[in-house]
Amino acid sequence: MKTMQSLIRLLALLSLGGAPLAHASAEISGPAKVGRSAWLLHFDSDWKNASGLPEKAMLIGLQGLANRTAPRLYITHADDFPWEITGPIAEFYQRKHGVQFTALKTADEALTQFAQYAKGYVVWDPAVMPTMNVAYTIAGLEDAVIVTPALIPLVAKHGLKPIDDLRGRYAGMTDVQIYAEAKGRYWARCSHDKLMLMGGHAGDMRIPGVADWGVRERMFFHDLSANPAQPDEVELEKQFFSEMNPGGFVFGWHSYAKDTEEQHTTLTSTFGLRMEGLQSLPNLSFNCQFSFTPGFRFANQHHVDRATKLVAEKKVYLAFVQSDGIGLGVWTKPGRGRLSLAWSAIPSWLEFSPAALEYFHESATAADYFIGGLSGPSYMYPNHIPAERFDGLMREAVRQMERLDERVFEILDNSAADGNVGNADLTKATVDRYYAAFPNVIGFINGYGPARTRDLRDTRPMISYDYYVDPKRPRDEVTADLNELIALNQKRPYFCMVHVRESNDVNSLVEVIKNLRGPVEVVPVDTFMKLAASNQTYMTRYQDPDDPKHFEGYTR
């Protein structure tokens, strides 16, 4: 555990990459409470089942209980943690909300402070990993901490009594049998607005960073598969989804050992449910309790007015977008601000982490531009959203965009693709629905890797990505790829939308641009849309009827 003083010194060294934008006075969500006391834990990088996981799993669940009625416990993480922003946002809470953090150094100290918010403990079996998820489900319902047998003396020392013991109950059972039995015991008492898909890493480690939120909100935890090769698990998960309330949330992430992101997002979308990742997303039980600071409003760095008309020259126009969870990328890394880059803010954070959104807007440079997405009010695949759910979901997305002062919307449907490879095109019916649902956007972006859906209606283009920048691809090869695209697309103007994968180094991309064969101009995304509206040198195209539509097995 690091001391609070060392955290502050670390935060002081972080470069946020440029001068922040100014925000004018406007209506706020609610009064900010200043002078609040809270406690802070720092986690190292050990999430292995045989070493660091049991204690971390216990403490994250304890965090959910401690934060039930007030923001009491916040966790920062090691530099290699997927969400790199926990330290900067802790500093933001200090600076903007007057939170006074007291550092806790050990699990014993954390229990001394917060065991009062637990009524007892539940024992899970590390030899049967699904029991950790069952234990978390019980923890939310019974106000319990979860422990392995080795941790029982520690929690007993703090006066906690046994509530349940899962050792032996599920021995020899398959995952689907375990979760079916747990469904019969607990599902009726759990939230039907929110479900926790506690997947992610498998094997010798887990990272249940979002478990505090699931415990606080009394969610049912599972890691059922959406892979049609495991039909029993798919059918059980469909039962959960069919019994959730319309517009409900699936928090967490799929199991890397069982299925793919594409399979699971396709399945959640067929039920009109909203996917909110990842399994490692930390501190939602703390973040949800802060509104925006007095006087704050979202003021995006627009480069053109809605009514602006631009004329594209005979050159190549490039626009760059980073859409993989704004806290997962390069926000705190050197170089941000050197390249005009659009960021897909996470819109549901308006509800669950408003202070985090304020942090990003406050620290944005003139080169950072925020867009809406992904596909709806949360991550969804629109080709599979039920028609009767589509308009209601998109009305919520429109509301979010208005709050966030966004004018460009990003869409992704990878149901017939795999990561950045495959068919990410939209059907004409889906495109029709988007144009009708978002009358005030100035343009749409489609895809993840390259896609082929393009359109232009009412001076509002829909442009798919032509290129995907893999952070592991050598920069000279990225340069060669883009130069090849430029050579192949001789008709000018050529509008090339580029998706920048999370963790790409901005400085290296600047060097790539210097070596492109011109004439080439990098423009902000909103300027790009206005230019693309002026001269449709791209073909109007939708998903072909003969294209693959989806993975086998996804029907409601």
Alpha carbon gap, first and last residue: 47 Å
Helix fraction by DSSP (H/I, runs of at least 4): 25-40%
Q: Give me the Rg, rounded.
A: 24 Å
Counting DSSP H or I runs of 4 or more residues, the number of helices is 18
Strand content range: 15-25%
Q: Uncertain regions: pLDDT < 50 for 5+ in a row?
A: 1-32, 551-556
Query: Which whole number gives the mean pLDDT?
Result: 91
Q: What overall form do the CA principal axes indicate?
A: globular
The domain tally reads 2
Number of β-strand runs = 21
The largest β sheet comes out as:
9 strands, mixed
User: What structural class is derived from the secondary structure elements?
Assistant: alpha/beta
Describe it for me?
- The protein is of the alpha/beta class and 556 residues long.
- The chain folds into two domains: 4-287, no CATH class; 320-534, Alpha-Beta Barrel (TIM Barrel), CATH 3.20.20.490.
- Helices cover 33% and strands 17% of the residues.
- The chain has 18 helices and 21 strands.
- It has helices spanning 4-13, 53-66, 86-97, 107-114, 130-142, 152-157, 175-186, 211-216, 231-242, 261-270, 284-287, 349-352, 354-362, 387-404, 428-437, 475-488, 506-514, 525-534, and strands at residues 37-42, 73-76, 100-103, 120-123, 144-147, 162-165, 194-200, 221-222, 249-255, 274-276, 316-322, 341-344, 368-371, 408-411, 416-418, 421-423, 443-446, 455-457, 460-469, 494-500, 520-522.
- Strands 11, 12, 13, 14, 17, 18, 19, 20 and 21 form a nine-stranded mixed β-sheet that branches. A four-stranded parallel β-sheet has the order 8-7-9-10. The chain has a three-stranded parallel β-sheet with strand order 2-1-3.
- β7, α8 and β8 form a beta-alpha-beta unit.
- α2 packs parallel to α4 (107-114) and α5 (130-142) runs parallel beside α7 (175-186).
- It starts with a helix and ends in a 22-residue tail after the last helix.
